[in-house]
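User: I'm new to structure prediction. If I give you an amino acid sequence, what do you actually give back? Let's try with this one:
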Amino acid sequence: MRRTEHSGERGAELDAAFAYCAGIVRRRARNFYYGLRLTPEPKRSALYAVYAWMRRADDAVDQPGTSAERRERLQRWRDRTERIFTGLRDVPDAGSDPVLVAFAATVRGFRLDPGELREMLGALMLDLDLDLDLDLDHEPGGIDAPAPMFRTREELASYCHGVASVVGVICARIWGIRNPGQWPTALEAASKRGLAFQLTNILRDAGRDYDEGRVYIAQEDFDAAGVSPKELRAWSRPDRCEVLVRRVGSWAEECFDASAPLDGLIHRDGAAALWTMTRIYRTLLRRITARPRSIVDDRRIRLASFTKATIAVRGMLRSRSAAGSPS
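Assistant: Good question. You get back a string of structure tokens that encode the predicted 3D arrangement of the chain. For your 327 residues, that looks like this:
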């Protein structure tokens, strides 16, 4: 099926909208782009549209402003999205925004569950609720050094479900699975994979998030390592800081392991993309735990483009090999 076949006479408009979303993914997705582009059409464009929609929501929260201003921006995006959910046939309020044009066509064409997409927006609202009194001019190490936003891993995992695990579920729904009777297992595994990705992000960005007044690592992990967020940012107790990083890293590894069934369940259309993104994130996680102090270095730890491109090529070759093997 061609990407525009579900759009009828609006094919040219949809093509332009999907191309616009692809540009956002190429510029902003970094680790995800190398995997998502291995997905065949029309699923690739659908994933790009969902990513661009999520990026807009993230930007509403992350752009400068008071908590009230950021909440208002996110609420406007939420309202526009809700009008799409309640009027998919006519796609109201989307015509002026190519992201919404492509997103509305994707929700309709792939029958995505609005409830799952609402969970993601709800998690971002929670982020703002927790951040309500944040002073964006906070200086690291000041008297009002930020405290952990979550007391327990359970609370953190609940937040991550909205901002990351749901993303894994949506990707699985777009890719599809080999055996429809195994959807419950696939969705549980996709949720775990999303949590593993997000925990990797939380570790990688711990220093930068602290400087912006946010501490996502749970208080129980700080307590177990015997270190404070301020000490972690300053790396003033190296042995204990390393214990904390490796403790959270082990949790992420456990989530990767628990999500292993997904690899055998996902439709071959998503196999290369899933393998590539997982390998990129797991390689990043292992580099972090091998050099824990990297999370507070001035230079953000990342994989080189060549490394990610090499992983993507391996993912593509693995997928082709599997597709050509006798069943």
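You can read the tokens as a compact description of the fold. Here is one thing that stands out. Residues 1-7, 133-143 have pLDDT under 50 and may be disordered.
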